[in-house]
Amino acid sequence: MRAVAGVLAALLLVGSLAVAGAQAATADSSHRSGGGSGGPGGTGSCDPYVDGTIIPVPCSAGGGGGGAGGTGGGGGTTVDEACQMLPLDEAQAKSLGLAWPPPAGQHWALLDCFGGGVGPGPQAVLVNNVTGAPEVTPQELLVQALGELRIPYPRPATAPPRGRDGLVGLPEWFWVPAGQWRTLRVTVTAGPVWATVTAVPVGLTFQPGAGLSPVSCAGPGTAYDPHTSAVRQHTDCSYTYFQPSAGQPGGAYHASLTATWRISWVGSGGAGGLLDAALAVPAGFDVPVAQGEALVTSP
Predict the structure, then answer these.
(1) Percent of the chain having pLDDT more than 70?
(2) Measured torsion, CA atoms of residues 239, 233, 177, 280, in degrees rounded to the nearest 10
(3) Picking from 62-71, 118-127, 176-185, 255-264, which range would have the lowest pLDDT averaged per residue?
(4) Residues with Cβ < 8 Å from 193, sequence gap 6 or more?
(5) String of DSSP letters for 106-117
(6) Burial readout 172-191 (b: 16 or more C-beta within 10 A, e: otherwise)
């Protein structure tokens, strides 16, 4: 009961969410909308759509650890979160403004899918006394799964290395290290109801700065090998500057590299679909470019 009280206290701090959860719990499941409000952002947020509703996805600087493999990357990260259902007694239910007594054959509970991560928090739901199944939809669990999803900001590598001058007329290579290029998957379950959201990195876009046209490439790019001759290496992810950066603010082009992610989901009962075909997550950096000088010698 002490654990319930702790969760209850947290829920009261977000009273608007509790009211929304209670309203959803008392509505007929056949009339529920698929969308919902998103959880709080982390160090930034991205915005896929769920049935016309924008759902913030936290972005983080970390790339995540290894896990089950997936398409579009060299490995994957999988998170499985099982929701807890903490029963509410009469006093607790009434303190949240829930109807009492609950409908026959059901009881009130707090559905807690937090798991210590970022998410929309506990919500009040009705639970079947016989089956233990909460009155919750896969779409509502999708909101929880999106709250647990972490899309990493790209940490771009370049050749020449960042901090060193590029040269006019020579390609500037860019890529994302293979360890960051992985499928991310989060599954949230509540009894027999479940939802899985999957994020797959699909490509990169380089914005050279100064109003110059961007270039895009599929995949994470190719790492430049300084120990191999340049003529024996190739990449589809490069950009060539034709003017030095001396006239730019700070003496460098203010460039950025954007990783594009495909976000989709599936859920119990055949639910699912595409949330965002091209979720853009950018990272900015400066590119100094020097004018190459020809060396002329006397015969």
Answers:
(1) 70
(2) 30
(3) 62-71
(4) 133, 134, 136, 137, 138, 141, 267, 268
(5) EEEEEEE--TTS
(6) bbbbbeebbbbbbbbbbbbb
From first CA to last CA, the distance across the chain in angstroms is: 93
DSSP single-letter state for residue 187: E
pLDDT of residue 299: 47
Please give the C-alpha separations between residue 205 and each of 85, 201, 256, 280, 299, in angstroms, as whole numbers: 44, 12, 8, 9, 46
CA distance 38 to 134: 20
Q: Rounded to whole angstroms, how far apart are CA atoms 117 and 119?
A: 6
Query: pTM for the whole thing?
Result: 0.72
Look up tokens 């006397």; give the residue: 298
Task: Please tell me the distance from the alpha carbon of residue 138 to that of residue 206, in angstroms, as a whole number.
Answer: 37
| Strand order across the 84-87 sheet | 84-87, 106-112, 123-128
Between CA 276 and CA 259, with CA 207 as vertex, the angle to 5 degrees is 35
